[in-house]
Amino acid sequence: MAHTHSHEHTHGSRGDLKLAFFLNLGFTILEIFGGLFINSIAILSDALHDLGDSLSLGLAWYLQGISEKQSDHRYSYGYRRFSLLGAFINTVVLIGGSLFIVREAIQRLLEPETFNSPGMVVFAVIGVAVNGLAAYRLRSNTSSNAQVVGLHLLEDVLGWVAVLVVGLVSLVVDLPILDPILSLLITVFILVNAVRRLIDSGKLFLQGVPEDIDIDKIQSQLQHIEGVISLHHTHIWSLDGEHNVFTAHLVVSDDTSAEEIKHIRHESLQLLDGLNLEHVTIAIEYESEECGMR
Asked: Which residues are listed as membrane-spanning (predicted)?
C-alpha cells in the first residue's frame, strides 16, 4: 500500500486574515463615531454590517490557525477542514448580512433619507481604501476560507464605491433615492456569489469530487496501467477546497512480481501528480483476494 503526504502550510493566508481583521475592526470603530458625528443613518447601518464582518474575519483568522496544525490522534487527516468550517460559517453570515441590507435598502426606497454629503464622501474614500487594501492582500489566497473573506471585503469595497458615487452626486443634486438603488444592485450581486459559495462549501462538506477533477478519466488512466486488471473503491475528495485526498484499490494477477507491483505504484503516483493531493492511498490486491469493499 502506498501513501504520500504533503505538509505545506499557508501561514501567509493567516497573516492576511489577521491584517484584514484589524483593518476592518479599526474602521468599524471609526465608522460608528463618524456616523454619529455627521448624523448619517446610512453609515451607522454600514457600521453594523462591518462589525459583523469583523467578527467573521476574526473567526476566519482563528480557524485558519487551527487548520494549519499537524495531524494527530484526534484528527488523523489534520485540521485543514477547520478552514472549510470557517468558510461555511462566514458564508452564512454574509448571506444574513446581505438580506439585512436588502431590507434596509427597500425601506429607504419607500422613505428616502437625507444625509451629510461631504461627510459621506470622506468616509467613502476611507472605506474604499481600507477595505480595498484588505481585499488586495487576500486576492492570491485560494483557500475557501480566504475566498469567502475576500467576498466579504469585496462587498464592502463595492458598497463604499456606491456611497462615494451617491455622496458626490448629492453634492450637486439632491437624489437620496440613489443610495438604496445602488445598495440593492451591489447586494444582489454579492448575494448570488455568496449562495454559490455556500453550495460549493456544502459539496466539500459532503465529500463531493472537486469540480476541476474528472474522476472517470483518472479511473480510465489507472485501468490502462500495464498489469492492472481492474480497480474499485476509487474516491477523491477535498479537505479544504485546496488539498485533496485520493484512495483506490488496484487488482493485479496472482503471478505479479514485487518488482511489477512497485512499477504499478510508481506509475499510479506519477499519473496522480498535479492534483494537489494531500494524502494518496493506493492499495494493490491480487485477483484471488477477497475485498469487502468491492
From this structure: 20-44, 82-103, 115-136, 157-175, 181-199
Query: Distance (Å, rounded) from C-alpha 139 to C-alpha 127?
Result: 18
Question: Within 13 Å, how many C-alpha atoms sit on residue 110's CB side?
Answer: 5
Report residue 134 as a C-alpha cell: 484588505
pTM attached to this predicted model: 0.66
- What architecture is the 8-205 domain classified under in CATH? Up-down Bundle (1.20)
CA distance 27 to 15: 18
- Do residues 24 and 134 touch, judged by C-beta distance below 8 A? yes
Which DSSP string corresponds to 34-88?
HHHHTT-HHHHHHHHHHHHHHHHHHHHHHHHHHHTSPP-SS-TT-STHHHHHHHH
Helix axes 144-172, 11-37, angle to 10 degrees: 30
30-85: pLDDT as tens digits? 878 877 777 666 676 667 667 767 777 787 778 777 777 777 788 777 777 777 77
Superfamily holding 215-286? Cation efflux protein, cytoplasmic domain (3.30.70.1350)
Question: Where are the domains positioned within the chain?
Answer: 8-205, 215-286
User: How much of the chain, in percent, has pLDDT values that exceed 70?
Assistant: 85
Q: Are the beta carbons of 45 and 152 closer than 8 angstroms?
A: no
Q: How far apart are CA 155 and CA 177, in angstroms?
A: 20
Half-sphere exposure of 272 (CA within 13 A, CB side): 27
Contacts of 23 (CB under 8 A, 6+ apart): 130, 131, 133, 134
Instruction: Give the Å distances, CA to CA, from 88 to 83, 192, 219, 224, 240.
Output: 9, 15, 31, 39, 11
